[in-house]
């Protein structure tokens, strides 16, 4: 943006100087977010100055936001705001141990580098940060890895590195891009395998590109920023390499010592830690032109009044955000006094809220300085949309999710509203499964991942499927972490196979082998369980790498032999199934895993030559328990005694015979071979 400074003299209007103000000057997204967070959190403590600008730090102190050098200097239980530079893992722990309320204002770009450092640490990969070792941002990044880590900024630093086969490389967000490339080239010559991430903030890149362009056309360059600001110092270095008359200033007061000629083109930019008020003050001080002209010229010129200069020099420009007072409201417009020579007009369609009244102060953005009728065209929605767009871009860069609401089903997918910005979700990205009716998502809130962003056209493509996959992966990870061999958990039978049953135990499937379904013999899993049935299972083995879990159903139930004496007392009559026949008797299954022997002498009322003369495999028979030996795992049963009891009952009912008159001959009891 260019601002012309004019005099009005006897000879008419006289152009003295041209000021070129950088578009990307002042607070970046992360810094503005940190400052606003600190203001909302007052009273609070910041760990180190919230930004490298003494004026902002003093203004925060006035509202109760003070800074501390370390966790040791912070009182237990205090409210602590983490500045945009971020901190290391150990510092978070120290604050938690003191019971502090931590409000994290770490820049999303920096947070993304922390995630990279954690990932490198998990794999044992060395980390190299290209940046200033003592800078708090670099210190914070190094604090997120347990693997070997270094900060390098020169060829000497690179040569001092120990030999290594591989490393991950990241950049301090305010690093000069050209210098980062030079250091990476040196690293590539020494380390065979490098994973390089150019993590320089996009706002930093824009700022550095713009300052070089302005410096080429300026006679004088003014870099506004705190002396301790890394990005401001880098801007000064870039500008001074191009423009010899480059000055680094903190406030407008420092302009007094700078010699600026009336014909000079003045370039102005500011570091990311410089507030808007200081930038405006510096531009306004360019109005102090009395020392820019000779006494002779000063006698011939009528200098404009201070008020006129303010209106002429403190220019409003498209995109500028200002605060104005509502003067009048009509059916479709709101008239706002913004302190300019013309009133501003906000169409009601451009209001973020229709709940405004005369006298209200509202924040607006300049859309047009002159709408053709001499009015300044303003908008409230643009401010919200810009902030939303910046936030969405920052979240996309940081890999964070966004919240949206389905608005309209269109060809190929769904349109959603994400913070007021139209976002397209392809049909294939709506769900983990095929979606037949996209209309079902209209009006539904949803969490989305940005998968494509066109900053020039402001178009966004997002995925709900990616979020669901991430949630499932996280859920599965937590489940695997909580699994413990030997524990008993609830599960639902999902699928049956000849070799066993697959059971869902809270998001992951485990296998109950057919041999672990029952203490008895099982021909097919369907003999024991059914699909959809809820059962308790015991975890036998876990293999996270192959994602396999071995389960047991039978071990959640008591072993049959341990309670056989209680369930089948001597003398009781029970029903069972003949499962096997030998020469000496028949084995009867009382329950799965528990068989008893009916000796051949106990199979019938009369002597039989072979067991098959009395019973066959598969027969359901009633037997009396003669003896239970749980240690030897033997149960002796009798069919004969059941038949005798039934016959006795029948004879007693008729009243014709005594028990001794029951027909049949006494059968000898033979000792059966031992068989489990």
What this model shows, in words?
- The protein has 676 residues and is of the alpha/beta class.
- It is 27% helix and 31% strand.
- The protein is built from 16 helices and 34 strands.
- The model is unreliable at 1-16, 289-314 and 657-676 (pLDDT under 50).
Record the SSE blueprint:
Elements: E1 2-9, E2 12-21, H1 29-41, E3 44-47, H2 54-62, E4 65-68, E5 79-82, H3 89-97, E6 101-104, H4 108-122, E7 127-130, H5 136-142, E8 149-152, H6 155-159, E9 166-171, H7 177-190, E10 193-196, H8 202-217, E11 220-224, H9 230-242, E12 246-249, E13 265-270, H10 276-285, H11 295-300, E14 301-302, H12 306-313, E15 321-329, E16 333-337, E17 344-347, E18 361-368, E19 376-379, H13 381-398, E20 402-410, E21 413-418, E22 421-426, E23 445-454, E24 459-463, H14 465-482, E25 488-497, E26 500-504, E27 509-513, E28 534-543, E29 548-552, H15 564-567, E30 573-582, E31 585-591, E32 594-599, E33 620-629, E34 634-638, H16 640-654
Parallel strand pairs: 2-13, 3-4, 3-5, 5-6, 7-8, 7-9, 9-10, 11-12, 11-13, 17-19, 22-24, 27-29, 32-34
Antiparallel strand pairs: 1-2, 1-14, 15-16, 15-18, 16-17, 18-19, 20-21, 20-23, 21-22, 23-24, 25-26, 25-28, 26-27, 28-29, 30-31, 30-33, 31-32, 33-34
List the total number of helices.
Answer: 16
User: Pairing-aware structural class of the strands and helices?
Assistant: alpha/beta
Record the strand order, biggest sheet: 12-11-13-2-1-14
Please provide the count of β strands. 34
How much helical structure, as a percent, in the residues? 25-40%
Q: pLDDT average, as an integer?
A: 82
Report the span from N to C terminus: 97 Å
User: Strand share of the residues?
Assistant: 25-35%
């Amino acid at each position: 943006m260019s601002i012309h400074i004019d005099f009005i003299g006897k000879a008419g209007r006289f152009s003295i100087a041209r000021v070129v103000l950088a578009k990307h000057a002042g607070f970046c997204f992360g810094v503005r977010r940190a400052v606003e967070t600190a203001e909302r959190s007052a009273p609070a403590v910041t760990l180190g100055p919230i930004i490298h600008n003494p004026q902002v730090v003093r203004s925060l102190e006035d509202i109760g936001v003070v800074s501390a050098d370390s966790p040791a200097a912070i009182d237990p239980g205090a409210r602590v705001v983490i500045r945009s530079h971020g901190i290391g893992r150990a510092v978070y722990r120290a604050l938690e141990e003191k019971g502090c309320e931590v409000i994290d204002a770490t820049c999303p770009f920096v947070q993304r580098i922390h995630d990279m450092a954690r990932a490198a640490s998990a794999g044992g990969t060395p980390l190299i940060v290209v940046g200033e070792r003592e800078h708090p941002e670099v210190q914070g990044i190094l604090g997120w890895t347990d693997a070997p880590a270094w900060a390098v900024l020169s060829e000497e630093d690179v040569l001092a590195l120990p030999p290594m086969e591989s490393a991950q490389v990241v950049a301090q967000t305010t690093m000069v891009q050209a210098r980062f490339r030079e250091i990476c080239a040196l690293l590539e010559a020494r380390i065979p395998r490098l994973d390089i991430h150019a993590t320089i903030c996009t706002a930093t890149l824009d700022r550095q590109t713009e300052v070089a362009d302005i410096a080429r056309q300026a006679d004088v360059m003014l870099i506004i920023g705190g002396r301790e600001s890394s990005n401001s110092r880098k801007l000064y270095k870039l500008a001074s390499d191009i423009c010899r008359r480059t000055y680094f200033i903190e406030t407008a007061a420092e302009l007094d010592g700078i010699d600026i000629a009336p014909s000079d083109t003045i370039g102005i930019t500011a570091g990311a830690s410089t507030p808007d008020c200081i930038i405006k003050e510096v531009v306004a001080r360019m109005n102090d032109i009395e020392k820019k002209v000779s006494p002779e010229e000063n006698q011939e010129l009528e200098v404009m009044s201070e008020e006129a200069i303010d209106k002429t020099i403190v220019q409003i420009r498209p995109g500028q955000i200002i605060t104005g007072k509502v003067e009048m409201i009509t059916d479709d417009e709101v008239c706002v006094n913004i302190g300019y020579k013309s009133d501003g007009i906000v169409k009601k369609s451009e209001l973020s809220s229709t709940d405004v009244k005369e006298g209200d102060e509202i924040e607006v953005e300049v859309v047009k300085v002159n709408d053709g009728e001499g009015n300044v065209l303003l908008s409230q929605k643009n401010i919200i949309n810009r902030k939303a767009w910046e936030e969405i871009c920052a979240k996309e860069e940081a890999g964070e999710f966004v919240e949206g609401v389905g608005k309209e089903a269109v060809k190929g997918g769904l349109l959603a509203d994400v913070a007021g910005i139209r976002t397209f979700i392809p049909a294939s990205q709506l769900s983990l499964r095929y979606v037949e009716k996209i209309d079902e998502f209209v009006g539904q809130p949803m969490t989305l991942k940005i998968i494509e962003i066109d900053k020039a056209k402001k178009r966004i493509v997002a995925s709900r499927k990616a979020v669901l996959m991430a949630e499932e992966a996280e859920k599965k990870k937590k489940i695997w972490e909580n699994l413990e061999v030997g524990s008993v958990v609830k599960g639902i039978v999902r699928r049956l196979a000849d070799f066993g049953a697959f059971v869902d135990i809270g998001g992951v499937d485990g296998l109950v082998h057919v041999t672990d379904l029952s203490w008895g013999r099982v021909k097919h899993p369907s003999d024991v369980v059914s699909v959809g049935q809820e059962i308790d299972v015991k975890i036998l083995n876990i293999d996270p790498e192959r994602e396999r879990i071995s389960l047991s159903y039978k071990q959640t139930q008591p072993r049959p032999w341990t309670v056989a004496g209680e369930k089948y007392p001597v003398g009781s009559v029970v029903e069972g199934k003949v499962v096997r026949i030998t020469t000496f008797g028949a084995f009867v299954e009382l329950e799965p895993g528990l068989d008893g022997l009916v000796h051949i002498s106990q199979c019938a009322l009369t002597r039989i030559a072979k067991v098959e003369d009395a019973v066959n495999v598969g027969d359901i028979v009633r037997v009396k328990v003669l003896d239970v030996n749980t240690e030897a795992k033997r149960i002796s049963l009798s069919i004969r005694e059941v038949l005798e009891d039934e016959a006795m009952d029948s004879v007693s009912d008729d009243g014709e015979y005594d028990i001794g008159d029951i027909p049949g001959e006494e059968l000898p009891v033979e000792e059966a071979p031992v068989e489990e």
